[in-house]
Specification:
119 residues; mainly beta; seven-stranded mixed sheet; four-stranded antiparallel sheet
Length: 119
């Protein structure tokens, strides 16, 4: 089992920045994918950014150039630096860890942290 605890959400004005952090504990494998998803009211959860153990990253088109994901493998943490925030970035943000355990694909989720951007 993996436990994820997020922090860093809040209310900001458009154009400002926020940094989300997620600490993972439990059975963390050396090879995994850590990421951030978000879900706005009335919309489906969507992938914002992900980073694999080697450091390779992937971003949703809507956040490219504004958000940066990073991880610290020694501390099992993943961060999301969000700059130039827009009202449409308003959502609950969820930390995610994906890893394969004994041949089974496992997804773990944090409790979510609210990000609200006022225009």
């Amino acid at each position: 089992q993996v436990q994820l605890v997020e922090s860093g959400g809040g209310l900001v004005q458009a154009g400002e920045s926020l940094r989300l952090s997620c600490a993972a504990s439990g059975s963390i494998f050396s090879i995994n994918v850590m990421g951030w998803y978000r879900q706005a009211p009335g919309k489906e959860r969507e992938l914002v950014a992900s980073i694999i153990s080697s450091g390779s990253t992937s971003y949703a088109d809507s956040v490219k150039g504004r958000f940066t994901i990073s991880r610290d493998n020694a501390k099992n943490t993943v961060n999301l630096q969000m700059n130039s925030l827009k009202a449409e970035d308003t959502a609950v943000y969820y930390c995610n860890v994906f890893q394969v355990e004994r041949g089974l694909r496992k997804n773990y989720w944090g409790q979510g942290t609210q990000v609200t951007v006022s225009s």
